[in-house]
Model the fold of this input.
Amino acid sequence: MNLLVMNARCPSFLMAGARPRQTKVYFGRSPVMSRYVAYFRVSTAAQGRSGLGLAAQRSKIEAFLNADDEVIAEFVEVQSGKADNREELWKAIAHAKKLGAKILIAKLDRFSRKVSFIAGIMEQGIGLVVAEMPHATDFQLHIFAALAQEERRLISDRTRSALAEAKKRGVALGKNAQALKERHRSQALEYARSIEAILQPMLVEGWSFTAIADQLNVAGVDAAKGGRFTAQTVKNIVIRLRMEKICHAR
Done:
């Protein structure tokens, strides 16, 4: 059996003090269960130098791998999630195609924040595996990506609107507390409606609020205020949706 040892490409300034990872590629009958090309993305060079962003992603991937799985190469990208010019990603895809491996990422939002970009990569005919969502189908990945993208848009719109109102009214905003309260209630209901389609199947299957919150966090979906989901936030959303239906039924 021939054995080739490869040094995965990783910019030295990203991994200060670290040696390139050596991985084994087997020719002939391979003893590994699955073969992966790992792709990591950090938004800034500072994140890469500190190693904190990479460490978190590596931990998720290592927790996902089975004992017989093999990561045959690693590629690290320093690029914003909004950008499509991913030189290292295209190298990773070419490498995976050549060796019959799948692309392995830690989280969907580390891959991209755009549905169109994710869809385009899937059309390359390469397997995409998300460590935090190991059993997700391509269809489910599209849904979660679309949901996350829409939520980011809503948050951005609400932020711009709030800033415009603050600039127009200044500190006098406190005089319109009731109107502001109603606006917040309306925004909360709008958000609840925006994720109802993804919540409903899990509710029908009897998932607990905690399980639903964990699934949304794994998918990289931001909660209404940009944070993480908890069982209580999911419960509040469900209550809002049910109260709306009761009001409409009257």
